[in-house]
Design brief:
Layout lengths: L4 E4 L9 E5 L6 E5 L6 H17 L5 E6 L4 H14 L4 E4 L14 E5 L1 H5 L8 E6 L6 H6 L2 E4 L7 E5 L1 H4 L4 H10 L6 H5 L3 H11 L6 E5 L7 H8 L4 E6 L2 H9 L7 E4 L12 E7 L8 H10 L1 E11 L3 H7 L12 H11 L1 E7 L5 E7 L1
Parallel strand pairs: 1-5, 4-6, 4-7, 5-6, 7-8, 10-11, 10-13, 11-12, 13-14
Antiparallel strand pairs: 2-3, 8-9, 14-16, 15-16
Helix pairs in contact: 1-2, 1-6, 8-9, 11-13
């Protein structure tokens, strides 16, 4: 444990060359690599994640619990050590220790596992950290969690969800987005098949005029760029923005960006003047926005009056949710009853909404 981290009760995980834990996962034992067994890049990923979680914790006295899958003790131990290294007092608890007795100003009291999760301290848990050990989400558990960490690859953890009251703390969003999408960039296109005709069809339905300036916000590997170039013609301009360098690298390597300008930037804070573009294409972007209303308003800011917004995904919402092991909710940003008011509040008018199994497409006009 690092300086500033104390432990009460039963230790969480034994030392050794690897931590082999029997957990609630199909397939039995899973191994979490120790610091010594990981590559420098993997250690850096863990450290970046732990720093991100530490920055998300509120100031003052905090009671937090780590739960989910077979790794909560490992993650809690590493988080406690990282907090101590950052100079924040942290008390690790286990066994029959009393949480309330250790709740002191400025101290993080950190527990782990389902037993602790089920018996919160007086006033409840301030922060619940849920570990996702599979690709599919545990909807109920994650809905009640404050921070969700994807641990299906124990050597490469990624924060995937943060509750609204904590989301504005720290600089976790960019780092975690890059950590998730970066390693997937090289195989992104092969994983999802040849869906570029679907992208082209969506661009075609938007009616982008020749000579226009078109922006692909969150362009990824550039699957929409050729269609956007065809739409605006040689006199137009195509811009591709993404937050992940590896995604832009693939877009350039495939030749899709030959007639486009690629920019490494955050789609939430676009580096363009007001009313700079005539059309915005956003494939898979909206569900990843921390604040969809603010994100859509940002897209509206850079779009001229009468300009077009194309919100697209090559798979409909229902099959996409099933692929990720979850069910659709009526309050999701892309649900028709939610999206219309969201767009209206951000300066758009929803003109068309189509959500069959083989695609999602919503078209809007800048008011």
């Amino acid at each position: 444990m690092g300086a500033g981290a104390a432990r009460i009760g039963t230790p969480g995980s034994p030392p050794g060359p690897a931590l082999c834990i029997m957990g609630r996962m199909t397939g039995g034992a899973m191994t979490v690599p120790t610091w010594e067994a990981m590559t420098g890049e993997q250690r850096g990923r863990w450290e970046e994640l732990l720093d991100g979680v530490a920055a998300l914790l509120p100031s003052g006295a905090v009671c937090a619990v780590v739960d989910g899958g077979p790794y909560p003790a490992v993650v809690a131990d590493r988080l406690a050590a990282r907090l101590g290294g950052r100079g924040r007092p942290c008390t690790r608890v286990g066994g029959a220790s009393s949480l309330t007795a250790e709740r002191t100003p400025g101290t993080v009291t950190l527990a782990d596992g389902p037993e602790w999760h089920a018996r919160p301290p007086a006033g409840g848990w301030d922060v619940v950290i849920w570990l996702r050990p599979r690709r599919a989400a545990d909807e109920e558990a994650e809905r009640d969690a404050d921070i969700v960490i994807d641990l299906h690859d124990p050597a490469w953890p990624v924060i995937r969800q943060v509750t609204g009251r904590l989301a504005g703390r720290g600089e976790w969003y960019i780092a975690e987005s890059r950590a998730f999408f970066g390693p997937r960039a090289e195989t992104w296109d092969t994983r999802f098949g040849d869906d570029m005709p679907a992208y082209a069809a969506a661009v075609g339905e938007a009616g982008i005029p020749c000579g226009a300036t078109a922006l692909d916000a969150g362009c990824g590997t550039g699957r929409a760029l050729p269609a956007l170039r065809a739409a605006v013609g040689p006199a137009g301009t195509v811009l591709g923005v993404d937050i992940t360098p590896q995604m832009l690298g693939v877009a350039a390597a495939t030749g899709r960006a030959e007639d486009a300008v690629l920019l490494l930037a955050d789609a939430r804070h676009l580096p363009f003047a007001d009313a700079a573009v005539d059309a915005v294409f956003a494939a898979g972007l909206v569900p990843h926005l921390l604040d969809p209303a603010a994100g859509l308003a940002g897209l509206a800011r850079v779009t001229r009056t009468g300009g077009r917004l194309i919100i697209f995904h090559p798979t409909g919402r229902a099959p996409l949710a099933a692929r990720h092991g979850r069910t659709l909710r009526p309050d999701e940003p892309l649900a028709e009853a939610t999206l219309g008011p969201l767009l209206a509040g951000a300066g758009w008018r929803l003109d068309a909404y189509d959500d069959p199994a083989d695609r999602f497409l919503a078209l809007a006009t800048r008011c």
